[in-house]
Structure formats: structure tokens, C-alpha cells
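INTERNAL AUDIT FORM
Audit reference: QA-55
Scope: verify that the stored structure record matches its stored sequence.
Auditor: D.O.
Record contents follow.
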Amino acid sequence: MRRYIIIILVLSSFVPWITRASDLKDKAVPTDIVEIEADRLDVYTNKGEAIFTGNVNAIKGDMSLQCKRLQMLYNKSTNTVSQLIATGDVYILWQDKQGNCNQAKYLLDEKKVILTGDVVIIRGEERISAQLITIDMVSGYQLAEGQGGRVKIRVESDQETGIFQWNR
């Protein structure tokens, strides 16, 4: 099992993240099963949609997620999940990285993750922030955009960097 590295950059602002990380990392499931817990679940069968609200925790493989609302879209004919859209105080643990943003969209069919709104991803001392980060797990292509702001990055210059590495 991968160990999540959490290094405190600014103790006062990251204390809540430490408690969240310890809750999530023990729940990782090494399969394609998506496990979701929430205070409420509304299912709209005719639309192929399920909406989880309140203290949402979701796990898929080595990715853990916490948010206020999670919308799950599924193909009605095959009953397979096609998208997960998290909104509201989104916090993610993935491999050896942690991040937060306003919205995270996981396109399962395309194996693509799109993070929007005050995106920050941290790996040890490395850090990247932007308004939009797109990660294509198939091609390995990654895009970071400032969308009116600036993209900021801090990487290790004398060691192997891992902020851009995403295992498939």
C-alpha cells in the first residue's frame, strides 16, 4: 500500500488536512470499486444520476475524496459509472499527493481528472497551484491554467520531482 507523505508547510493552515488525511488513507481500496458514504443520497433513475450530499467520503482505488456534494452519472443501459463530480470544499488524496479545489470532475471512461477553482496540489515540499488542472491518465498529458491568474509551481531542483507523476 502506498504511504501518503504529508509535510506541513504552514502548520496553522494544514492542521485540518492532517486529520482528514489520517481518516482517508486507511480506507484505500485496490480495485475499481467506488465506495461512497454521505448523509443523504438522492437517486434519479430516469436521468442516470445519483447525488450524495453532506460529509461525502468517496474512495476509488488509490484515490480518496471528501466534499460537500458528489454527483455520480451513470450509463442507464450498461449501469456503469461514467462521471463523478465533486463540489464544495473538495479535498483529495491520490497516490503520494494531496490537493484541494472547488470542483473535481473524474471522467472514468476517458481516465481524465479535471480540477477547477483555487486548485492546489502538494507532494512533500513540492506544490502547484492554478485555477484549472487537467490530468489525462492515458496519455500522461497535464495542463495547468491560471485563467486570469498565474500558475505557480515549486519543485525540487536537486532531486527527482514527482509532482507531475501519476501512476495509471
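Auditor finding: record pair retrieved intact. The chain has one domain: 11-154.
Action required: none
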